[in-house]
């Protein structure tokens, strides 16, 4: 399988090191292709081929969620249509003995997650784009108010004949500083907006074109796309399941966290 077009970097919170995730396929039917470990499983109705590619860090309001990206192809081997959707895929975190890890929120249950739904992500991205436009509009209005205030202060300072030269000079310096700050803020507002819109547009394009989308596969048809499953850095192993068929299909991966020292400049 060809590597995904986009590249994701995840920086750990440590000051001197960064930690990256590597997954090793423990499935018997695994081979190397384009530098990736490609695993294959055959079920009664489906053939699934998948390979771990990289990590995606979703920056949502109030949270950052890390996802594992699997380049996945599903083929319908049956004689009837089969509906395929991202939520069919699940991932479970396992400890060193390959037992299920408990959920941090509920220790009575096991940690497992369904795959990210690209359609829901597209809705989220559209909402964030609308929010960014509102923020820019607010900043424009606020900057206009600041501009009017600076103009008024400048006129008042220029026409005030009762103040001393020292007071005039001091106010002139403050007003000049205000103009400079306003100019910097205007540039920063537009730069932030442009950066955020570029990022969101890039995410939207990937979710529309690259990710695994809900569809119906006719007999003999195949669907290939990116399946995004939430990571758990406490896991020693992952089990990736497709449990909806009569014969469930599972993949096993070993997780390794690789710490690399940052280069000193």
Question: Would you mind describing this structure in some detail?
Answer:
This protein has about 260 residues and is an alpha+beta fold. The chain has 2 domains: about 15-115 and about 210-260, Immunoglobulin-like; about 130-205. The protein is about 35% helix and about 35% strand. The chain is built from 2 helices and 12 strands; from the N terminus they run E-E-E-E-E-E-E-E-H-H-E-E-E-E. It has a 5-stranded antiparallel β-sheet with strand order 1-12-11-7-8, with no helix packed on it. A 5-stranded antiparallel β-sheet has the order 2-3-4-5-10, with no helix packed on it. Strand 3 and strand 4 (about 45-60) form a beta hairpin. The chain is elongated and about 95 Å long. The two termini are about 35 Å apart. The model is unreliable at about 1-15 (pLDDT under 50).
Observed structural traits:
single chain, alpha+beta, 265 residues, 2 helices, elongated, Immunoglobulin-like, disordered N terminus, five-stranded antiparallel beta sheet
**What is the annotated CATH architecture of the largest domain?**
Sandwich
What is the CATH C level class of the largest domain, in words? Mainly Beta
Taken in chain order, the helices and strands follow as EEEEEEEEHHEEEE
* Strand element count: 12
CATH topology of the largest domain: Immunoglobulin-like
Can you tell me the overall shape?
elongated
Measured between the Cα atoms of the first and last residue, the distance is 36 Å
Rg (CA only): 27 Å
Mean pLDDT: 86
The chain-level structural class is: alpha+beta
The total of helices stands at 2
Amount of beta strand:
25-35%
Unreliable sequence segments: 1-17
Strands in their spatial order, largest beta sheet: 1-12-11-7-8
Number of domains: 2
> Could you estimate the helical fraction of the residues in percent?
25-40%
Largest sheet: 5 strands, antiparallel
């Amino acid at each position: 399988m060809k590597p995904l077009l986009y590249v994701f970097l995840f920086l750990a919170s440590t000051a001197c090191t960064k930690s990256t995730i590597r997954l090793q396929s423990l499935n018997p039917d695994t081979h190397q292709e384009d530098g990736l470990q490609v695993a294959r499983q055959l079920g009664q109705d489906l053939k699934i081929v998948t390979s771990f590619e990289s990590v995606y860090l979703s920056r949502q309001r109030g949270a950052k969620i890390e996802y594992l990206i699997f380049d996945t192809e599903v083929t319908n081997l049956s004689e009837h249509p089969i509906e395929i959707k991202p939520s069919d895929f699940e991932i479970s975190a396992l400890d060193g003995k390959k037992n299920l890890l408990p959920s941090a929120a509920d220790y009575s249950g096991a940690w497992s997650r369904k795959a990210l739904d690209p359609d829901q992500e597209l809705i989220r991205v559209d909402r964030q784009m609308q929010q960014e436009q509102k923020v820019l509009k607010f900043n424009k209005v606020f900057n206009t108010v600041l501009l009017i205030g600076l103009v008024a202060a400048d006129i008042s300072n220029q026409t005030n004949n009762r103040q001393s030269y020292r007071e005039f000079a001091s106010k002139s310096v403050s007003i000049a500083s205000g103009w400079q700050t306003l100019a910097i803020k205007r540039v920063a507002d537009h730069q932030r907006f442009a950066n955020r819109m570029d990022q969101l547009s890039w995410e939207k394009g990937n979710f529309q074109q690259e990710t695994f989308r809900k569809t119906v596969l006719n007999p003999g048809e195949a669907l290939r796309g990116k399946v995004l499953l939430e990571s758990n850095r406490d896991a020693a192993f992952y089990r990736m399941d497709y449990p909806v068929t009569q014969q469930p299909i599972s993949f096993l991966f070993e997780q390794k966290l690789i710490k690399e020292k940052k280069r000193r400049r």
